Amino acid sequence: MSSSPPETLEAKPNDSGEPGSSLAPVRVSLTPQQRFGDYLQSRGMRSTQQRQMLLKLVFSGHEHFDADQLVDRLPAKGQPGYVSRPTVYRTLAEFVDAGLLRKFELEGRSVYEHDYGYPQHDHLHCTECGSLIEFQCDALSDIKSKVASEHGFQVRSHRLIISGVCQPCRKKRRRVRRKVDRI
Amino acid sequence: MSSSPPETLEAKPNDSGEPGSSLAPVRVSLTPQQRFGDYLQSRGMRSTQQRQMLLKLVFSGHEHFDADQLVDRLPAKGQPGYVSRPTVYRTLAEFVDAGLLRKFELEGRSVYEHDYGYPQHDHLHCTECGSLIEFQCDALSDIKSKVASEHGFQVRSHRLIISGVCQPCRKKRRRVRRKVDRI
DNA sequence: TTGAATGCAAAGGATTTGCAGAGGC
DNA sequence: GCCTCTGCAAATCCTTTGCATTCAA
After folding, report:
1. Measured from the CB, is A45 under 7 Å from any atom of strand C?
2. In terms of CB atoms within 10 Å, which end of chain B has fewer, N or C?
3. Which of A147, A151, A164 sits opposite B154 (nearest CB)?
4. CA distance B54 to A37
């Protein structure tokens, strides 16, 4: 597959100028579309309109999202481009399998984020507004290798989520507190 | 409340000699029972047989567990000490609220572990056998405070899970590989 | 043509809820 | 006795599955 010529991802994913991408993309040789095409081809799977539609939506921005949010961004039933909920779930699993997306659990639901072409990072989770803020930290790999060697553990991946209150929510809180004080 | 005299937790929770506790308990002034008693009292809630039963079961060992595993350890319906599933869920939420337990999501289900009287720690998760191994790492608090100050984020807690393959599973794999080689 | 993929409807599993009766305080 | 708590049954939420049909190759 991969009919179009190879190129780096850097220009691509943020054409839309959508919010939510805080980190710089990583240099990779194939677009997600190309990489997924290779994945399908190598497994005798087919490139369908639904898979293309979802690929387009998922890689039009860098936001974290869950299955529901993705469904909400799809055309309604009956409209061209509509994809059923079961197919959304099936396809998300394929994207994860293909290495395009990473999946993790937050408050009982599955959250997805870009993996391919996106740098390793971790998250701050605001328990007030629910926002997820990305950050990078090199020191973590030292911790991982140290712990791994201490326990004879073979590390495949990790997930660090720091919970608390983000800056905007702290400011809101302060405003509220001042108001209360005045009463 | 708190009728019995204060004491440290150190002797208590592991009387049973159950497996699963890898870290040394932390010195605290109240038993979980006392602390939960205070919690109930301060909110006008009642000390019921069900809550006492669950308290006893949950603090008879240090293993991680989910609601199902706790239900399995309860007497069967009709037997004395039986607690219904809804009450188990309601009570686990109360234990979390009281600061006795911590809750986190793993593979789509809620996992609980001791919080009160148990030291801060993180987990290695073996994707082969599903085991959770605890480890402690001081360097993480440096990371947390650094990231917090960089993002103006107020940290309340964190959750780090390192996934991979544990030592026993790696050994099993090696044995299998050797067997395959011989064929 | 042919088998893979989709959509539908329905199932599944974990967790929650409404409510009438039971039981702490 | 009052009001909280419990157990039951049913509902909810997210996700998956079986199957007939559609469609990419």
Report:
1. yes
2. C
3. A164
4. 52
Q: Considering only CB atoms, which chain A residues are within 8 Å of B151?
A: 124, 133, 135, 166-167
Burial level of B178, CB count in 10 A (0-12/13-18/19+)?
exposed
Angle, to 10 degrees, between the axis of helix B49-58 and the axis of helix B32-42? 140
pTM over 0.90: no
Average pLDDT of chain B? 87
The pLDDT of residue B177 is 67
Q: Note whether B122 and A151 are within 8 A (CB).
A: no
Query: Residue B96 CA to C22 C1' — how many Å?
Result: 26
Nearest to A148 by CA among B161, B168, B175, B166: B166
Beta A154-165 vs A132-135: how paired, if at all? Answer: unpaired
Does position B4 have pLDDT exceeding 80, yes or no?
no
Q: Quick check: B150 and A137 CB within 8 A? A: no
**Cβ distance of B164 and A157 shorter than 8 Å:** yes
